[in-house]
Each structure stands twice: as structure tokens, then as C-alpha cells.
Amino acid sequence: MTRSRIAAFLAIAFLVLFCFSGVMATTTVDETTVSIEMGMVKLLFSLSSAPLLLIPLSIVAAVAAFIAYSQNEKNVGMLFSFVAAVTFALFMVFFSMEEKNSALYTPISEALKLAGVKFKKRDVKLITPTFNLTTYLALLCMIASCVVGHGTLGRDRRHILKRDLLPYAYIAPHLFFFIIFFLTPAIYGVYAAFTKWDLFNEPVFTGLENFKTMLFDSSNTYYKQLRNGLWNTIKFVIYSVPFCIVVPFSLALALNARPKGNKIFQALYYLPSLMSISTVTLTWRYVFNTQYGIVNKFLGIDVNFFMPPFTWVMLVIVTVWWCTGSTMVIYQSALASVPMDQYEAAAVDGAGTIQRFIHVTLPNMTYPIMYTLVTSVVAQFNIYGQPDILVGFSNGEANAVLLQYIYENSVKKQVAGMSSAMAVILGLCIMVVSFIQMRMMVRNAQE
Known about the structure:
Layout: H1 3-20, E1 22-29, E2 32-39, H2 40-44, H3 54-70, H4 74-97, H5 102-114, E3 128-131, H6 133-150, H7 155-192, E4 195-196, E5 204-205, H8 209-216, H9 221-256, H10 262-270, H11 277-287, H12 294-299, H13 310-336, H14 340-348, H15 353-364, H16 366-381, H17 385-390, H18 394-397, H19 402-412, H20 416-446
Antiparallel strand pairs: 1-2, 1-3, 4-5
Helix pairs in contact: 1-3, 1-4, 1-6, 3-4, 3-7, 4-6, 7-20, 8-9, 9-13, 9-16, 9-19, 16-20, 19-20
């Protein structure tokens, strides 16, 4: 058996042993000592304690190490084995250092109640965690995987090691933050959708109960919130996305003609994209103000843009103004890459400006337009800041989007399980729409 296969086996052994590992916790209240045992998988999904965020990083690294070793990439496998071992060891150290671990408090408090101890939360001053033998065996397997994949280091070996691992040094920061701040919360969010959770106590698994309530119980508030919020989100996508494509495309065409001062105009058009959504929205809130807003004063009209149906007009204008710059830059780059000989050939054949646009410009812009269409749809499905700051839940929640309900229920009302279920449904909608658009992009690319 080669070193790569042995190292791959050890990486798999780490994952298997992790599933059977756990922690013992002990505390003493009023001279009564109780102990509980908690499996590592259950501990991971307790959604408590910051050191637990290191576990997904070690698991992903272990899986990557196994894949690398399976492909006989010993240097890459050794790197990921090292990362998995270090992150898992750091988790064990930091988790043990916590004097009052929130992940262990709920089972400890239940054990105290069963022992007949009357106590308050402040009475539990110290919870001492101790990892079982399987946890240490899992760590040893990951360290052994790293050592086996390492081998000896000669001069040629060091050169090959540098060549193989240098690319990962560039992507390591992005990969770290992706796993910690995107992949891990996404997994926790999906899990929370199947639980009853108030953000403070340990989540209780309820299966599909949240989804049944939202989708089929018409008398429930969350049933109405889901439909109203999702429908308003879809309406906003339908209203705003065409303008998020047409407006920046028109500006890119105008700037591509190289008018006088085009660089200044390009900077001005791109400037809103650099601002935060809060800054943009609060600025436009004053612009559309019914009493002293410059829109009504300048146009000589008396329209309340904060009342339906004009609220949709206001929301679309604010969004398009904010999003135009980044999309315009993409179109400018694509227009600059259109071969000039195609325009010259079309002009020789007698094609006018409109015909050259239809038969030369648009065919070369198909992929950039489809790409920006996908990104715009995904971005507008995640609409939150504009309606929340401009109108909130006023007007009978006529403009309340789904993300507003998700935030309101999870943070303010502490109904995190139901909010996570809403977020999962929104995510599924985005995935379906994006899948259809991606299929269209692939088909256009093949043609």
C-alpha cells in the first residue's frame, strides 16, 4: 500500500472517529456534582460556542485531503491534513478554555434538574469539559495522515513542494473566510429550518413542521407572511431587473462612442456603486420626501412616493441608480472587445447604425448580458435595505419583502427556526431561477 493510500485511509478514519467522538461535561452546584456526555455531531449542531466554527473548517480540510491523496497529490493532501489537524486541535484547546460553555449549559441544566437541584443560571459558574478517547484518536489520525503524506525533504522535494503548494497560499484567505462565514452559516441555517429555536436555548429538531405551517396552514401568520413577502420580492425582481440591464447597457454604448469627457461621466456613473446601501437609501429618502424633496419640487408635482403604487417606482429608481455602475463596467469591457473588422464589414455591406447594433453588437454581447441577468436576478431576490429603510412595514405591509420578515422574526421576535425555513424557501427559488438562466447561458454559448 502506497503512502498516498495510507494517508487517505487515515483522513477517512478521522471523519469516522469524529462521528463517534464526544465530550464529557461536569459542574457543581450546591455541593451537587453532575456530569453529562454529548456527542461531537450533536455538539456541532447546538449552534452555540464560537470555537465550534473551527470544526467545519477541519472537516472540509479532511475531505480535501482525502481527495488529494486519492489523486496521488501527496503535497496537497499533506497541506490539507495539516490544516485539519491544526484547526481541530485549536478547537479542542479553545473549547476547553471556556469556563461557562453555552453549548453544554442546556444538557447540564437538565441534569441538575433531574438531580433535584434548584438553581439559577448564575449559579452555574464553571462547566468543565473533557474530551473522550475517540476525540484524541481522531486528532492522532489527522496528524498521522499529515506525517505520512509529508515524507522526506530533499532539495528536489522542497522545489516540488513549493510549486504544488504556492497556488493554495493565494486562495487560502478567501477559502478560509468562505468556509467560516458562508459555508458554515449556510449549513447551520438549513439545519435551523428544521428546528424550533429562539437563538438563546438549544434548537429542538421538529422535522418538516415549520414548512408545513408556512405552506399549508392558512390561519397562521407565517403562512401569510411567506406569500406576501415572496410575492413582493418577485414583483420587485420583475420591475427592477429589466432596468438594471437596459440602463447600464445604454450608458456603456454611449461611453463607448468616446464622447468628450467620457472618463468623467464614467466615474460619475460608477460612483454610486461604491456607496453602502444605507447611504444611498437615506439620501434618496430625502430626495423623494413629500414636503421638501427635490423630485416633487423640480417636476412640479405632488406625489407621495411612499404610498403604493408609487413606492415601487421609488424602489426601482433607487436600486437602478445604485447598481448601474458595476454592470456598466462589464458592458464597457465587452463592447471594447468586439472586433472592429465586423463593424467595417457591415458598413461596407450598407448596414446602418441600427442594423450594426442588431447584427454585430448584440450577438457579441449575448454572454455578458446573460451573465449580468443572472447576477441581477440573484441580487434583487435578496432585496432588503431599500424597502426596509424607505417604507418598512407601512401601508399594510404592501411593500414588505421576504427578507424583511426573515429578519423581523429571527432577530426581533426570536423565531429563528421559522425564519430559517423562510430563508430556505427563498434560497430554493433563487436556485431554480438561476439554474434556468444558467442553462440558457450554456445553450447560447454552444450555439
